[in-house]
Amino acid sequence: MRTYVIAILGMVIIFPFSAPQAAAGNADDTLFMRLAERSWVLAEPVRVLTAANLYEEIDGEAELYLPYDFLDLKVAYLFRKERADVQLRLELFRHGSPRDAFGIYSQHRFPGQETTPIGPSEAIVSDASLDFFRGDRFVRIRAASPAAARPDLMELGRAVSAILEGTGSIPPEAGALLISGFVPGTLVYQKRAILGYNAFAPGYEAKFSRKEAAGTVILVPTGAGGLPKPSAEAIAGGFPGFGKVAAGLYRIEIAGGTLWLKDSGAHLIGVAGKVSRDLAEPIISEIGDKLKSCR
């Protein structure tokens, strides 16, 4: 820190001046200190937001994050120590569990996007943005100056990932939906609605496309969120066109086709679309078999 002395009308005023410091957003957070060791310096104090004021930072998007057990968001602008013109915006969303952090990431993941590994995580990448999750954090990085480029996004992403703890993998049970014909970029953890219906959430859904059929597969943990899920029969009974077709297997007519729903005890497994029973049952069995190896 430098000290400057200024004389004004015979008075001497002494005041300190310092360059932007790599200080943490709060006293117990060392992440930004560790980023400073990797040449990333804070351009201004970190802003911390909670559920009460999240809308101030991401007006119009807050309702997407809150259901996923949102705890807080830290927003920071950082620049390269050796190049102050390279500035990035870092957003660190903290959620109640890795499953919830993955859920938010999955809401930003679509087919056809470019992805790249960032530490143990898959990241959605472009020339101006980088998104990934690790542990209970969803991370967004954005170019905040014209000089910031993709290599800078990647470098900061790798630095943040190296500091964060936890897995960058999808929840183990979600892997059961990665069946043959799975469409990359369509695996989503839904907290409010699956197939557009609240009765099934929370749970997972994904798209599949095969020569003989295409549609959506769903997986609903019966104890997700700590709350017991009603049986498939109890849920299916509330829909028109409901029918029990075999022990533990139900048919529900929904918008866009038929949902074949199997109650496996720990999970509800479903196949939806213009899919016949003959095609749906082998897919349900495939998901059930994968579940055994995913646990």
Task: List the keywords.
Protein Transport Mog1p, Chain A, 2 domains, disordered N terminus, 295 residues, 7-stranded antiparallel β-sheet, alpha+beta, single chain, 37% strand
Could you explain the architecture of this structure?
Strands 3, 4, 5, 6, 7, 8, 9 and 10 form an eight-stranded antiparallel beta sheet that branches. This protein has a seven-stranded antiparallel beta sheet with strand order 11-12-13-17-16-15-14. It has a two-stranded antiparallel ribbon with strand order 1-2. The chain starts with a strand and ends with a helix. The chain is an alpha+beta fold and about 300 residues long. It has six helices and 17 strands. The N terminus is likely disordered. It folds into two domains: about 160 residues, Protein Transport Mog1p, Chain A; about 120 residues, Protein Transport Mog1p, Chain A, CATH 3.40.1000. About 35% of the residues are buried.
Question: Summed up, what is this model?
Answer:
The chain has helices at 31-36, 62-65, 98-108, 150-163, 232-236, 277-294, and strands at residues 2-8, 11-17, 40-42, 47-49, 70-80, 83-95, 115-118, 121-125, 129-134, 137-143, 188-190, 203-209, 214-221, 243-246, 249-254, 257-263, 267-273.
